[in-house]
Write a structure and sequence with these properties.
homodimer; about 325 residues; alpha/beta; Rossmann fold; 2 domains; five-stranded parallel β-sheet
């Protein structure tokens, strides 16, 4: 503790001196952050570093000094003082009681985050991007373009239905199917009057639950074998449950933008487009909440949320690729 | 229209043939996506491209073909078929009635998005990153570290107060202040019994409105002169109002993670930490809604939302830098 205190005092002095030098370079007395007596200032600076709850105030003081130092005309002096500033920051970080020292990283979350795969890239690691999206934000177009850009597979509801229907048709070929190489074209939709069939098919579970149950198994099997982009299906939550690394992205855009786009894509008038949006957003939100207990579209439930209206389809694809593929492992 | 139709038929044939080739390479008859008669399949594929509302189904069919093609063992054949697949996608994009052709990009939004600055980087363009965040997600630590990483200025509430107080103290030095080089240390907090002073100071406006009013002016002036990271203050909305390019980022983390962190940073027990979080989130949410009429923390109101629990402080900084600085203009 004493030692910590001594370290803080030393640093406080360096900060005070740095401010003094910056002030000299800029001339104006207003340029000085710390205007009290040297002892007072150093004392209170040290206080901020040593276990004070107000250590964040020190961050603002440091920022003020740096904001000024960056305006020093003479390049050499500026470089020298900014270097000292950076050194001081490093030292501050080494003080357990100072700001910026308590991280927010959730180890278990990070372990499951495919972004960190580049640090431990083995054959067992697969890049899986789970995309949730609101209707009309071009989320599926973005997901599809992303899969093509990363040269990995793409799965949406229709493809899963195809695979699941096939699974259902031939329980023996699970191995083959899970890699989605061998799927029939026609999707058998359950007909009316199939209630008893369905009862057997879904092991007596309500249909939704059974489909979700089957999907979960399929998804985890696929995840062990290939890289892919998956749209919706609560895939992020299923994979988290299966302790399988992935990246979860939520894509949306302002309601007005989405209405305009849906008017074009579905050739609807404003009223019908806007109703369709509200209905589908509500449906997806309910589906997600029912199977996950979480709030759909709440940023804290995803690794990343993107506003596609800011970037467009191609721009969003580029940004997501940049984020998940910093080493260019896929774009090669 | 006729011409469009002809183009669709031609493409449909190419898609059907591609599927056929993929099927031959993989051998299994299940490998075939299109199992109907050639004419039927080509006809229905063309339908999907020509103004059908179901063109998105074509995307799934294409994905199925590609998912299979990627599993072709022989590298040369795989490369050839994937090339044809990509060529077909390009052609499909050129058909106005097909999927992926209606973009979601909001031109006016994009114009105001600093991410696009790299395309038109002039002295007049400044990189301004507006960060909103929930309490406890280390958002301010991330913003501060980001400013240091990008070597640009950093502004938070305390620094703004300092600047505004100085503005207030000396109306004549706005020019100097707006670059935030010349600010006094002590922040004058209005004392009790200053009501009349305040009435003059705030031009008869309620104090909050006046401070917001002054802040808006200051922010827009600064934005014309320097690059910076700004924490909170509805800066994103103020700059949008001023038609000034910027990037808006919302940072948060799961409640449980934030509680744990605040317990450490503020040395509080779980109950008090959790109450503090709820209070401050509510306060920020109210402030944002009062001055913007928008929902705080709703992904559609920001360019990007980041879950800091997935990346930690340094990881979040790296990701945001990668996103806004793809050309390394700043990290140089």
């Amino acid at each position: 503790m004493q030692e910590n205190r001594a370290k803080c005092m030393k640093l406080a002095e360096r900060i005070y001196e740095l401010d003094g030098e910056v002030y000299q370079c800029l001339g104006s007395s207003l340029g000085r952050v710390f205007t009290g007596s040297r002892d007072e200032c150093v004392e209170s600076l040290a206080e901020l570093m040593c276990g004070s709850r107000k250590s964040y105030l020190l961050r603002s003081e440091m920022a003020l000094v740096a904001n000024m130092a960056r305006t020093i005309p003479d390049e050499e002096t500026r470089a020298r003082l900014m270097a000292e500033y950076n050194n001081i920051l490093v030292e501050i970080k080494s003080i357990p009681t100072s700001f910026g020292t308590v991280d927010i990283l959730d180890e278990s979350r990070a372990k499951l985050n495919a972004i960190h795969l580049h640090e431990r890239f083995t054959d067992k690691d697969h890049l899986i991007v789970c995309i949730s999206r609101t209707l009309g934000c071009a989320g599926t177009d973005i997901g599809f373009a992303l899969a093509n850009a990363l040269k990995i597979n793409f799965y949406d509801q229709k493809i899963f239905n195809t695979v699941l229907e096939h699974l259902d048709a031939d329980k023996n070929s699970i191995e083959d199917i899970s890699s989605a190489n061998e799927v029939p074209n026609k999707v058998r939709k359950p007909q009316k009057g199939q209630t008893l069939d369905n009862f057997h098919r879904y092991h007596g579970l309500p249909e939704n639950d059974a489909v979700f149950f089957n999907l979960s198994g399929l998804l985890c099997e696929m995840a062990a074998k290939e890289d892919f982009v998956v749209m919706g299906r609560c895939a992020d939550v299923i994979l988290t449950g299966g302790r399988i690394p992935h990246v979860s992205v939520f894509i949306t855009a302002p309601f007005e933008q989405r209405v305009r786009r849906v008017m074009k894509t579905h050739s609807l008038d404003r009223k019908h487009a806007s109703n369709l949006l509200k209905q589908l957003d509500h449906k997806r939100s309910k589906y997600y909440h029912f199977f996950t207990g979480r709030k759909w579209g709440d940023p804290e439930n995803y690794d990343l949320c993107i506003n596609s209206a800011s970037y467009g389809i191609q721009g969003s694809v580029e940004m997501i690729s940049r984020m998940i593929d910093q080493n260019g492992l896929y774009r090669r």
